[in-house]
């Protein structure tokens, strides 16, 4: 009885003991084939370093620069007077002067060449007109020319314009887009130009001004009252303080009667002079207008004038009228030691701008 009862108990204990031994053996030898997988330790990802985003205020878009207006570039007028010494004795000098003008027309923005008389010394000598023709033909189709006759060009009061007209006709000046007109006798001419955004009129009559010439000038000036007038004259100023007579007296009357005249360019007398003439245009006793009267004549210098010409610069931006002398022959500015005689700056005086 007892052996039957204890057998099952022994078997249970034996099985339990064997199980414990097996567990101990497996654990001791490192065998984990039958062990549950350990719960993995979670890996904590490192916190990334903070990235600072720099924010900048965008610069304002600059306003586009205004497109330069080429019309406002300074414009140049080249002025010569009393060139008879060159055509009679030094023709290569006059040719050098006109060639220089053509070569520098773009650089200096040369708009016109002005000639205020006495192109030749003896109008009966064909060689002198040939020299003038060779020199001034250089300008044809390149730089416009406006000229008036001096006493040597037309045999004084005889008014023989034959050779003078032949020389001018070669310029084809009537085809200029700026050509305005001529008087009935062919002694006067005017051209219409624009510098900056202001309108000018270039006009003049030749030596020995008659009543008909003065009347023509007056009518043209009154036809264009809103254009600033640059008057070309052969004889307008005297070197001394003597009273005006003949041409100078008549032309001063024309200038006084027309408020749009602001500049007068002349030669005839051998020397340099500038006068700021004052005019009371409305008769109230106060001077309303200044006319810059300028005389240039280099013919008494060596070799007919050493090639000096005048460079007139009209600057519509700075409102300046600048003048200086230059000799292409000598590559030299200002003949006289006192440079203020030939080089100076004046306020730009115009009808629309004061």
Query: pLDDT under 50 segments (min length 5)?
Result: 1-14, 16-37
**Rg estimate, integer Å:** 48 Å
Please indicate the count of domains: 1
- Indicate the structural class: alpha/beta
Task: Write a structural description.
The longest helix has 28 residues. The chain is of the alpha/beta class and 354 residues long. The N terminus is likely disordered. It contains seven helices and 14 strands. It has one domain: Metallo-dependent phosphatases (Purple Acid Phosphatase, chain A, domain 2, 4-Layer Sandwich). Strands 1, 2, 3, 11, 12, 13 and 14 form a seven-stranded mixed sheet that branches. It has a seven-stranded mixed sheet with strand order 4-5-6-7-8-10-9, with helices on one face. The protein is globular and about 80 Å long.
Short précis:
25% of the residues lie in helices and 23% in strands. The protein is an alpha/beta fold and 354 residues long.
List the helices and strands and how they pair.
Elements: H1 2-29, E1 75-80, H2 84-89, H3 91-103, E2 110-115, H4 126-136, E3 145-147, H5 162-169, E4 179-182, E5 188-195, E6 198-205, H6 211-223, E7 228-232, H7 246-256, E8 261-266, E9 272-279, E10 289-296, E11 309-315, E12 320-327, E13 332-333, E14 344-347
Parallel strand pairs: 1-2, 2-3, 6-7, 7-8, 8-10
Antiparallel strand pairs: 1-11, 4-5, 5-6, 9-10, 11-12, 12-13, 12-14
Helix pairs in contact: 3-4
